[in-house]
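Ticket #4471: structure output looks truncated?

Reporter: J.K.
Steps to reproduce: submitted the chain below (587 residues) through the standard prediction queue, then opened the result file.
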Amino acid sequence: MMDDFRQALIAGFERLTAWADILDRINVFPIADGDTGRNLVISLAPLRRPDRDGQVMARDILLSARGNSGNIASSFFQYFIQAGSRENLPDAVRLGREHSRQAVPDPQPGTMLSFFDALAALLPNTDVFSDHGRISDVLAHLEAVVQDTTDQQPKLRKAGVVDAGALGLFLYFEGFFHILADGRIPLRPLTETFRGRLQVSPSYSDDLETGYCVDTVLQSEANAAETGQMLTSLGESVVVTRKDAYLKIHFHTQDRENAHRELALLGRVIGWTEDDLYHQTSSFGSESRESSVHIMTDAAGSLSRQEAKALGISILDSYLTVGDRYLPETYFSPEELYSAMRSGLRVTTAQASIFERHQIYTSVMSRHQRALYLCVGSAFTGNYRVVMDWKREHDPEDRLVVLDTGAASGRLGVLALAVAAYAFEAVEDEQVVAFARQALIRCEEYIFLDRLEYLAAGGRLSKTEAFFGNMLHMKPIVSPMADGARKVGVVRNREEQLRFALDVLGRSLQPEEKALIMLEYSDNRPWVEEVKLEVARRYPEARIVLHPLSLTSGAHTGPGTWAVAFLGMGSNGNGGGSNHGKFVLMV
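Returned output as attached by the reporter:
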């Protein structure tokens, strides 16, 4: 692929990822399940690795596709990426548009299919790329297409929003054309471009759905269109795409077992994922409360997207590569990561690009008057330097306060939970910042490793040290500090790990203290649940959170790792201030 085309593919994906949470919030069509942003990020993640062969990328996009929006987008991008350069884009767009329509038995207006129709009409030839003004005109037309979706579907009109899938594609192509125009087309905040169309009306309501949203891969010679028609008798929201010997299938069904049996008659089912539609639709619209100052942190802290949404926290992801899969870390499941590591699959971590991080800062600050960024320690990543560079250029009013916490993993997660909860009670922004500064001094974390070869694989330990350490059953204990992770002890077994954990808790916490304690697990939740029982017996007034270890940390420390992070508030729970203890009851 040509360099500018390759970079454009990446920029489109990164702009989409930075604003994906807005897509989830307005996802009311075809059902209000709030997952369009998630599904598009997971489905199109292979576009961030365009150095791979085009056919391999097309296969990866097919196999990665999730949800209605992700599968329709996948059917388009399998052909779009084959362009390889701007000269071939018009033909690739037309081919992708044709196949995306063929993938849906009942195409609907006011969706991403309308977007693809418009894109194909606006790119009749390569003359569009002759000057930046013409590219700007294309984007203006595409913006109007997205705006029009509100009136094309009754649910969208009732909710007062644009179609989430069409908006996701607009985001993608804004980033894509930004690169093809040599960066001369400004990227406006989404909140400015679609003002008034990004918030579901408070009066909007919809029936709860039941059943399952299924994504599966079928190795079969069956006709894709005929398979799609067959599935319409079993469910709804059907999308079927073929790639070589495989059919990628998405549908909603009340009877997943029967659907599985019917598909098995057509070929070999080699992949099956599902979401519970009742859970998704019943939780849609349950927005978190707004605090006086918005809290942002890094996914390197042990914090899930679900928890972040509940407390109104914005998350900046790192990336994981697990074998051939490459995703923001909060889109991976712990089970997938640790299973891959135990099988010997190569796992690596990487930071989001500077472009993507800047987009995330812009997204957060376009929606909130004031924000506090609890940044992962600068000893661990370059995030602090990048955000401070962004502030100097884009934050003249100092609306974004940034703290270099010196923390990572559970220590950062505990800080984020405590500060976000306290922010709901604080009267002034300065109180929240002051609380955060005090909390990061008092917060501690201890990480208990099971084996050393994963640190060696990441270059943080020699293979010889790992070999002899494992042979002697040495289990190091590390603590994230402002200057990096320090080794603070070595034990030989789980019992000694537990004894060490109880000792450090005992040195810092009083038995009746209203502390916040996070117990983190990797692939060993049953063991950590036992630890929780012992900790709860000793600290009956503490709020104890059982939580997966951040996958960034888990990728370096490996299966069998667990950790304890905690923040004490004093025996009366006030932490030296009148309101500081209230967070324990809210987390």
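Triage note (M.O.): checked the attachment and the full token line is present. The two ends are 48 Å apart (CA to CA).
Status: closed, working as intended.
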